[in-house]
Design brief:
The protein is of the alpha/beta class and about 325 residues long. About 50% of the residues lie in helices and about 20% in strands. Bound molecules: beta-D-galactopyranuronic acid (GTR).
Length: about 325
């Protein structure tokens, strides 16, 4: 009798555990993801591609829902929310992540990559993997990098050929210490403003220009006010897709694997989309009458050692490693 009772209790306990495991496993999970861009922009489309893979591979159990156009706040607050676990996912610029983990600041430095091939060898190699991994110490999980082209200056006053042409111009910068120092080094007056507040600042004349890539210049509408775009290509800051560590810890091993693999697989798609979007954006901007000009590239590079010496000393070792990547 005792034996039977014991078996019955053991069986019920077993059933309860199995059932709760099934429930936990079949529970629908919505991952909320923030982005400052609108639907159609390559960063969001990259995450949507990833979302589709995740949804299919989890039989519809895990869904990624995007909150676009900065509807959940600035990139800085998105990073903060992720760290606190108040948000699950975010796609932001590395410059905002470097504010909390300065190690990543190396990716923002001017002319740090030789070209796009070199950049992606760095990002997808050991260095990139190490940098993504380091984020876990800041309560963030780095899923993958994304392409974001080059950043160049644009303004409403005149074409820029050499750094001295920037003198006297108020140029909006991302709220990033490195970007502030860099734009100041080139001779302009840097004004940190959150991305989604830049357009009204340009319209009001609070700033004369900004610096960004071609797709952002178009989709933000900045081109309507700042007509001169000068291709100095001073930085090539990658984007990053992040997950909150708090969310990550709630996932099963197999779900983590699915999410990570999908993120990795979305990169090739996002990069291809980026190239197409960049070309199409340029065409559209030319049709809209924007004035593009090439710059004296040497003039932007000469003397840069002093910038590196003053602000990038902490990156000496990793810069060496980046330069060695072939
Ligand atoms: C864009 C980037 C955004 C944001 C923006 C900015 O190129 O995709 O995430 O960082 O630049 O300048 O604030």
């Amino acid at each position: 009798m005792r034996h039977k009772l014991f078996l019955a209790i053991a069986f019920s306990i077993c059933l309860i555990f199995t059932q709760s495991e099934i429930i936990a496993h079949s529970k629908k999970l919505i991952l909320r993801c923030a982005d400052v861009h609108a639907f159609g922009y390559p960063t969001i489309e990259g995450v949507l591609y990833m979302a589709k893979l995740v949804k299919t591979r989890t039989g519809g159990r895990i869904e990624i829902v995007i909150y676009p156009e900065g509807s959940l706040g600035s990139e800085a607050s998105v990073v903060e929310m992720l760290r606190l676990g108040a948000l699950d996912m975010g796609r932001v610029s590395i410059s905002q992540v470097a504010e909390v983990n300065p190690e990543l600041g190396v990716l923002i430095l001017p002319f740090i990559f030789k070209d796009e091939t070199h950049k992606w060898k760095v990002l997808e190699g050991e260095i990139g993997a190490g940098l993504l991994k380091s984020l876990v110490n800041y309560d963030l999980v780095g899923l993958c990098f994304q392409e974001s082209g080059h950043r160049s200056f644009y303004n409403s006053k005149r074409p820029i050929y050499r750094p001295e042409d920037l003198r006297g111009l108020k140029i909006r910068v991302q709220p990033s210490q490195i970007m502030f120092r860099l734009v100041e080094y080139f001779g302009a007056s840097p004004v940190p403003i959150d991305y989604n507040d830049v357009y009204p600042a340009l319209v009001a004349g609070a700033v004369d220009g900004a610096e960004n890539n071609i797709p952002s210049y178009l989709t933000s509408g900045h081109y309507k006010v700042a007509r001169y775009f000068s291709f100095d290509k001073h930085t090539s800051i990658p984007e990053v897709v992040l997950l909150s560590k708090k969310t990550w810890l709630k996932l099963t091993d197999s779900d983590r694997e699915i999410i990570l693999t999908a993120a990795k697989e979305s990169v090739a798609y996002q990069r291809e989309l980026w190239s197409k979007f960049e070309i199409a954006s340029r065409r559209q901007l030319e049709e809209a009458g924007c004035k593009f000009n090439e710059v004296d590239g040497e003039a932007f590079r000469v003397g840069l050692e002093s910038f590196y010496h003053k602000y990038a000393k902490q990156y000496e070792k990793i810069i060496c490693e980046i330069q060695k990547v072939k």
